[in-house]
Amino acid sequence: MAQHPPVILITGGAQGIGKGIAAHFLDKRWRVVICDQNAEAISACRQDFGDPDNLLLITMDVSREPEVASAIEQAARWGKGLDALVNNAGLADPDTGPIELLELDQWQRRIDVNLTGAFLMVKHSVPHLRESQGSIVNMASTRALQSEPDSEAYAASKGGLIAMTHALAISLGPDVRANSISPGWIDVSAWQAHAPSEPQPLSASDHGQHPSGRVGKPEDVAAMVAYLVSPDAGFVTGQNFVIDGGMTRKMIYED
C-alpha cells in the first residue's frame, strides 16, 4: 500500500451495492472515487455523503474508452495513485425475454457494460495498480453459476467476468491481485438514489429462503471487498467468492 491514504475507485458506486462499498471505505478514511453513469445518483451522493475531502465523484460510462481513460487519470492525480479497483458497474435487470426474440443490441449492451466495461477499467488502471501493488475486485453474480429463464446475456456477461478474473490473476501477478465476488439476493432498497425513508420490509419467507436466515445487505459485500483489498488477503488471488447466505447450496423442490 502507498504511504498516502489508500485510494479505491468504485464503478457504479452511486447507488446499490456500490454505494454501500463506498460508504464502508469512507468510514475507514480511504480516499474514495465513485464513478457512475447516472448523474442524478451522483448528485444524490453529494447530498448523502456531503463533500468530504476524501471523496471524488465522476460521471462516466464504463463502456466508452475515452471516458474510462480520462476518469482513471483524474482519479490517480487526485488520489496520488490508485490502490484498489472495484468493477461494480452493470446493467442489473437480467431478464431480456426469450432468446429467439433477443435483439443483438440488447445482448451487446449487457456485454459492453458488464464485461467490456470491466476490461476497459482494468486496462487503464493497471499501470497505477502495479505501482501500488494493488488489487482488483470484479462484481460478478450468482447468476454466473445458476440461472432463471431468459437471462442469457446477463449470465454470459457475469460468467465472463469470473473467467476474466482468474486470467487477470495470472497475467498481473504477483504485482496485482484479482478476485471476484458473486452476490446473491442483496437488498439495496435503502441504497438507491432516492431511497424511501422507510423501505418496504422483506417478508419472513424472503429471509427464510436463505440458510443464513436473512437476505443480504450491501454491507455484507463491502466487508468482503475490504478483506480482499487488504494485506490480510495477500495470498488470495484468482478466486470467486459467493456471498449469498448459502442460497446456491440449498436444494429446492416444488411441492
From TrEMBL:
Keywords: Oxidoreductase
Key word Hydrolase present: no
Source organism, top-level taxon: Bacteria
SUPFAM superfamilies documented for this protein: NAD(P)-binding Rossmann-fold domains (SSF51735)
Tagged with keyword Oxidoreductase: yes
UniProt-listed InterPro entries: NAD(P)-bd_dom_sf (IPR036291), Sc_DH/Rdtase_CS (IPR020904), SDR_fam (IPR002347)
Region (Disordered): 196-216
Similarity field: Belongs to the short-chain dehydrogenases/reductases (SDR) family.
Protein name from the UniProt record: SDR family oxidoreductase
Species for this entry: Marinobacter xiaoshiensis
